[in-house]
Amino acid sequence: AIIAIITNPVNSTVPIASAIMKAYNVYDEKKIIGVTTLDGLRAATFVAEAKVCL
């Protein structure tokens, strides 16, 4: 399975999840990723809504 972490802050949550997986001897660096697309999408939505209000 591939684990995708979307919860903020991604840069802190991914290492925590990695440490937990290492403790259970199930860690595979190719199977855990941090997803930052949500932050970009929120920023784009915020800008688009601000432009409509002008």
Automatic annotation (TrEMBL):
One of its GO terms (cellular component) is cytoplasm. It comes from Rotaria magnacalcarata. This is Malate dehydrogenase. Keywords: NAD, Oxidoreductase. GO terms for molecular function: L-malate dehydrogenase (NAD+) activity. InterPro entries: Malate_DH_AS (IPR001252). Gene3D superfamilies: NAD(P)-binding Rossmann-like Domain. Transmembrane segments: none annotated. It comes from the Eukaryota. GO terms for biological process: malate metabolic process. PANTHER family: MALATE AND LACTATE DEHYDROGENASE (PTHR11540), MALATE DEHYDROGENASE, MITOCHONDRIAL (PTHR11540:SF16). The keyword NAD applies.
